[in-house]
Design a protein that fits this description.
98 residues, mainly alpha, globular
Length: 98
Amino acid sequence: MTDNVIGSIAQIDKKMLMEKLSAELPALRAKMGSSQAELGELIGVSRQTYSMIETQKKEMAWSVYMSLILVFSSNPKTASLLEFCGAFPAELQMVLRK
C-alpha cells in the first residue's frame, strides 16, 4: 500500500502544482482572513519566507506546498477556491485520502 501511495505522488507534476498554488496565495490568504505572519506560523515558516513565496520571489518547497494544501483544504472559506484553481488535483486528493 505504501509503495502505491509513493508511486502515485511521484507521478504528480509537483513543480506545476507549486506554481499554481503560488499564483493563488494572495487570494487564498485574503479569503481565509489571515496575515502573512499568521499563515507562516501555521505552516512553520517565517513571515519573511512566506512573503517571498507569496510574491514568487522564492520557490516553495514541496513540504510547504503540502502544509498549505492541508491548511487551505480544511478551511471552508478556501477549499472550493483551492480546487477550482487546479492547485489540488483530484489525483492528489485521492492519494492523500488513502
